[in-house]
């Protein structure tokens, strides 16, 4: 006779944790697109037993068998003891937000299912690695091979995330695609590269894959940068220029602190992705006397962010667009798609639902600065 086991894309024991899940003892991610499932009482106890399973059907009461059948319909139980998503243990939540921890597990599982390599950068892993005191992050950052971003975004769509509108075509200039949630309360940023990286996207990601370790989220082993790569990425993040604003002293200090914590190995990582060029002064002050390569030019993905206003920044950014696509990209910058225009207006504090009005407001915000 058949036996039953627990399956999931991630699960947390929240019995002793304070959360917004009322009396839930377990939070379980289905193997089918769905919101997290909260279990309590008898159902929670039975699912715990399935985690320790397999449990032969003859050992289940009629009521338990009916409940297990419901679990199967919900995608959290299976008769296949070799199921790729079989759950063998229940871990307590270690993030302040169990939902965010489940998002890490979910994205890792979906990427694995689609055979997409991912590395989860920044975030709470930095806290575990001693690179920052703050544990919680507001979103989940994932570095993905540039050619795989759309595939991963499409795979996450049934789970409740959709790409935020942007004036550029995806992957043309922006270094990441933001996925906004419907009910999860946590955005996902899919990165194809990182500002300040001078080598091409494919090489940078290949290098990063060689600098990976693992960290468990909701019982799922998730790839993260090792401390050297994490510190290098964090230093680039801290020092990344903001259009119209000089680099603050505090940001440079933060970059120096993470490099000091990780040690000289962080410079070796940065050198392989040509991140040393934009961080030359920070590296020199952190590791006096160390020798490293510096390129002749600052990467365009950094240079356009150093401009004094948005319009100048966008025109510099256009230099990274292939010539045969540059005219179309310029037109979309000036006259974006309706959803991108409305999103831009709302982020600027507007409330219009008229795309033409939103486009005109966008032009009025940009071109006065360009004429100065």
Describe the structure.
With 372 residues, the chain is α+β, with helices and mostly antiparallel strands. It has helices at 41-51, 62-74, 98-113, 124-128, 149-156, 201-209, 227-239, 249-262, 265-272, 280-286, 300-303, 310-317, 323-334, 338-347, 355-371; strands at residues 3-6, 10-13, 26-29, 37-39, 55-56, 77-78, 91-92, 118-121, 139-144, 161-163, 176-181, 187-191, 212-217, 220-225. Strands 8-9-12-11-10 form a 5-stranded mixed β-sheet, with helices on both faces. A hairpin with a 7-residue loop joins strand 3 (26-29) and strand 4. The longest helix is centred in the last third of the chain and has 17 residues, at 355-371. It is globular. The model has no long low-confidence stretch (mean pLDDT 87).
Q: Tags for this entry?
A:
single chain, 372 residues, alpha+beta, five-stranded mixed sheet, four-stranded mixed sheet, 15 helices, 42% helix, globular
In short:
The protein is α+β, with helices and mostly antiparallel strands. Helix content is 42%, strand content 15%.
